[in-house]
UniProtKB/TrEMBL annotation:
<dbReference type="GO" id="GO:0032263">
    <property type="term" value="P:GMP salvage"/>
</dbReference>
<dbReference type="InterPro" id="IPR000836">
    <property type="entry name" value="PRTase_dom"/>
</dbReference>
<keyword id="KW-0660">Purine salvage</keyword>
<keyword id="KW-0808">Transferase</keyword>
<dbReference type="GO" id="GO:0005829">
    <property type="term" value="C:cytosol"/>
</dbReference>
<dbReference type="GO" id="GO:0000287">
    <property type="term" value="F:magnesium ion binding"/>
</dbReference>
<protein>
    <recommendedName>
        <fullName>Hypoxanthine phosphoribosyltransferase</fullName>
        <ecNumber>2.4.2.8</ecNumber>
    </recommendedName>
</protein>
<comment type="pathway">
    <text>Purine metabolism; IMP biosynthesis via salvage pathway; IMP from hypoxanthine: step 1/1.</text>
</comment>
<dbReference type="GO" id="GO:0000166">
    <property type="term" value="F:nucleotide binding"/>
</dbReference>
<keyword id="KW-0460">Magnesium</keyword>
<dbReference type="Pfam" id="PF00156">
    <property type="entry name" value="Pribosyltran"/>
</dbReference>
<feature type="domain" description="Phosphoribosyltransferase">
    <location>
        <begin position="9"/>
        <end position="154"/>
    </location>
</feature>
<keyword id="KW-0479">Metal-binding</keyword>
<dbReference type="InterPro" id="IPR029057">
    <property type="entry name" value="PRTase-like"/>
</dbReference>
<dbReference type="GO" id="GO:0004422">
    <property type="term" value="F:hypoxanthine phosphoribosyltransferase activity"/>
</dbReference>
<dbReference type="InterPro" id="IPR005904">
    <property type="entry name" value="Hxn_phspho_trans"/>
</dbReference>
<dbReference type="GO" id="GO:0046100">
    <property type="term" value="P:hypoxanthine metabolic process"/>
</dbReference>
Amino acid sequence: MKVLIDQNEINSRVIALGRELAQEYQGRPLTIIGILAGSLVLLADLIRAIDVPHQVGLLQASSYRGKSTKPGELFVNLDYLPDLSERDVLLVDDIFDTGKTMQKVMAQINEQEPRSLKTAVLLWKEEATEVDFGPDYHCFKIPDHFVVGYGLDFNNEYRHLPFIASLEGSDLV
Ligand code: 5GP
Ligand code: MG
């Protein structure tokens, strides 16, 4: 495992993004929606860095990848989602890869007709993106390598690591 982004870099970038978002959403009815489970760690740090009132909700998107690093069919569970009408919604996820997860989740959120909808992620694999948009906010762009830590898992392990590391070869079994 090789550390790509250390704990200090993540912390200062997340704090800076929180300040930027606080300015953007000041005086607006903000609801931040975290996509489970990968966004957990970013969500916890980011909401404490956004110094304006806001609500928090969750939804689950899972892609039956099992032991694989390649996603399968996407399943979206909206059971825990609060009412989003008249709300400015910010969707938070760990990583924007092909962008298909975000595209599908955004379509479902838009059915609730929020006042606005934007997206924020920790990591953006821009060269792997297959949709015709990117995240509105991102903390770091990374190359197209499989990474873990700070919420990101491999086979549901490694989420607790306070840094981002890439897994290669013998780690991926
Ligand atoms: P997308 O739909 O944008 O291709 O993929 C988004 C989802 O795939 C993320 O929420 C994440 O669960 C997973 N994913 C994509 N790239 C990585 C990666 O490098 N590491 C991990 N752990 N998950 C990833
Ligand atoms: Mg995910």
